[in-house]
Amino acid sequence: MFYCEILSGIWIGDVEILLNTRFIEDNDINIIFNCTQTYNFPDIKTIQKIRLPFSPSFELQSDKDLLKNNKNKLCEYIKNNIEHNNILLCCYDGKTISPLIIALFIQKYSNLDKKSIYTILLSKDNTLKLWCDIDLFD
User: Fold this and answer.
1) CA 54 → CA 24, 59, 111, 112, distances in Å?
2) Which of 3, 34, 41, 106 lies 20 to 30 angstroms, CA to CA, from 19?
3) Which of 128, 93, 87, 132 is nearest to 114 (CA)?
């Protein structure tokens, strides 16, 4: 099981964390972005549940188009909710799609360049797979 708090109140994790209701309750998670096509949400009725149906490899053009077409709406949703909610972004391994979304969020609402953003993310966990250039989603 993998999970990591990237920004205050914003967590990333793998699909196994979706089964860990204790983690979700202990960290007062209110919103879950499930970035998988098939994994279920935890059975907690008080949580907002949002599915972003990315494929396991995130190599398909349709995955990149899905993120590009929804990036602004997704980042705005996080921005509008982060002050009063804790957010969990889950993807298959927790180390690819979820941190990419956080990188796009930081890029949109800060003056940091992408190298600084990647440095911040890798300082939280150096096993994150930041292989995708965030500039592809402009």
Assistant:
1) 22, 9, 28, 27
2) 106
3) 132
pTM exceeds 0.85? yes
- Report the C-alpha gap between 78 and 57 in whole angstroms: 24
The string of pLDDT tens digits covering residues 61-98 is 888 899 999 999 999 999 999 999 999 999 999 999 99
Token pair for 89: 């972004």
Report CA torsion sign: 3, 9, 41, 133: negative
Give CA angle at 58 (50, 120), nearest 5°.
80
Rounded CA separation 113/118 (Å): 9
Please tell me the distance from the alpha carbon of residue 60 to that of residue 89, in angstroms, as a whole number. 20
Indicate the helix (H) or strand (E) that contains 70.
Answer: helix 61-81
Distance CA 28, CA 57 (A): 30
